[in-house]
Amino acid sequence: MGKAYINKIEVDFNDGDTILETASSVQIKIPTLCKHPDLSPTGGCGICVVKIEGTNKMLRACCTKIEDGMKIITHDPEIVEIRRTVIELILSDHPNDCLICGRNNNCELQTIVADFGIREESFEKIVKEIPQDKSTGTIKLEPSKCIKCGRCIEVCQDIQNVWALSFLERGINTRMAPAGDIQLKDSPCVRCGQCSAHCPTGAIFEHDHTREVWAELQNPDMHCIVQIAPSVRVAVGEGFGYAPGENLTNKLYAALRRLGFNTVFDTNFSADVTIMEEASEFVERFVHKKGVLPLITTCCPAWVDFMEKFHTDIIPHFSSAKSPQEIMGTLCKTYYAEKKGIDPSKIRVISIMPCTAKKYEISRSNEMFASGYQSTDFVLTTRELIRMIKQAGIDFNFIEGEEPDNLMGDYSGAGTIFGVTGGVMEAALRTAHHFITGNKLEKVEFENVRGLDGVKETSVEISGNILKIVVAHGLGNVEYVLNKVKEAKDKGKEIPYHFIEVMACSGGCIGGGGQPYGVTDEIRKARAKGLYSDDKNSEVRCSHENPFIKQLYKEFLGEPLSEKAHHLLHTKYVPRPEYKK
């Protein structure tokens, strides 16, 4: 601990704290555009300069460690003028198209310009015409709007270990682009969207499908079904002034009906189906020795993309169970269509997801057309849904909650926690325990797989068997787990795990690339708390106990891993070693 003074306010700090962090602890906001709580400081933007009394130095607060006895000035006329000049220089290389920008009214640069009252341009414009990159169909790059803060590159390289983005050229010509100056679709990009989630401007944005969805909703010949992912319900409210983590499930159902959807289902239900298949698959491998261990979860499409590109030797370990999104889409065009007597060709399935990679998943392989039709037709991120609700004039804050359509709307608590790191593992363990022992768990919580530690290793005992498990989130943490597996295999030793869960985004889907902007660990914790509360308050907390799941298998699928279930609910993976990091 140490003591210093910021604007004559005495402050306590810990070793290693920066001036920026310490100032925030006493409600002093130092402006910055390059620093994000998830990322290491770079000092790239230069806006956070402060003075140290007794010297003529100006230091960058984001990357300067505070020292005992320091007397710091964060705001005075000279500092404000320097910051204003830096912002004006940034604006000289930035287009003036705020009105048609996807980040309009939700842009960090726009906010800071307004805070400084900048109303005219002081420097000659030098905006370069750089082509947009829409090649992935999931993430759009608009390099002319880039302010060179480096956030996207840092999260792509250091947090996700993907290395799809980099800075090219130097000096005034520096620009953000896929490494090698190729199209994004040809790069190692796994479409996780963390670059867009951390970008402070509109330089990286999800590919917007709201117009296509509006067209389907207005087509009287189409029966439009919507499904909402677990983590959407605890994040969507942030777009309407609610605190992060507030569960707004029933308001969402009501808003979606007002948008014009004919049927409202919940992806939590199909998460229960995924668990039925995946837990059965694990029991086959763990108990009956049919297949290799460890079994690795596959509900995250960015992780699947990452594995197919960089770890093709791990493919045999992957669960073949489709993600909840794809299972719901398939069941809508088979089970639901059959029950309701609707022509599947007239059904459109739209998913509301926290994830940009889900836009890619719906077209990734022939198995996604197992029903004879594309299982899911469009994917909207949480951000896109917020925009649609506002476009429709729905007063989300005061709308009365409603219930889902119950054929595939009612879910267990296990389905809810799919949206947070460790949730898939916990849900699978609840059902795997039942499949192995035939008994009901007295305590369904597996606390050791919860929390935001990047890698969580633990073991549980099931019927005398020790089950070694690990949960990893954030692709940069996956290498540690996979290296341990590969090292054991190479040396002929016992593999250290039986079951592995991987989520590409930090925190899992609650921190997905399509969620509302501004995510931090505190927000991730709040969203996770909302999901765990929903689970705790659920009457049914295990997937295999959901009566509508029992009905689905009795009337349609037969049993988990049946021939019909395997045809409709399972998929394959394709090595793509041509991608290099």
Number of helices: 18
Q: The CATH topology of the largest domain, please?
A: Rossmann fold
Structural class: alpha/beta
| Range of strand content | 5-15%
- What would you report as the Rg, rounded to the nearest angstrom? 25 Å
Going across the major beta sheet, what is the strand order? 2-1-5-3-4
The profile of the biggest β sheet is: 5 strands, mixed
**Low-pLDDT runs:** none
**Any idea how many domains?**
3
DSSP helix fraction: 25-40%
In CATH terms, what is the architecture of the largest domain? Answer: 3-Layer(aba) Sandwich
CATH class of the largest domain: Alpha Beta
Ends: how far apart?
42 Å
What best-fitting shape do the alpha-carbon axes yield? Answer: globular
Secondary structure tally: strands: 17
Average predicted confidence as pLDDT? 95
Can you walk me through this structure?
The chain has 581 residues and is an alpha/beta fold. It has three domains: 2-75, Ubiquitin-like (UB roll) (Roll); 90-206, 2-Layer Sandwich (Alpha-Beta Plaits); 211-569, Rossmann fold (3-Layer(aba) Sandwich), CATH 3.40.50.1780. The chain contains 18 helices and 17 strands. It has helices spanning 19-25, 77-92, 108-115, 151-159, 194-198, 210-217, 249-259, 267-286, 301-310, 324-340, 357-361, 382-391, 413-416, 423-437, 475-490, 521-536, 547-557, 563-569, and strands at residues 2-6, 9-13, 49-52, 58-60, 71-73, 139-141, 165-168, 175-178, 204-206, 223-228, 263-266, 295-296, 347-353, 378-381, 455-462, 465-473, 499-503. It has a five-stranded mixed β-sheet with strand order 2-1-5-3-4, with helices on both faces. The chain has a four-stranded parallel β-sheet with strand order 11-10-13-14, with helices on both faces. Strands 12-17-16-15 form a four-stranded mixed β-sheet, with helices on both faces. The radius of gyration is 25 Å and the shape is globular. The protein starts with a strand and ends in a 12-residue tail after the last helix. The relative contact order is 0.12. The model has no long low-confidence stretch (mean pLDDT 95).
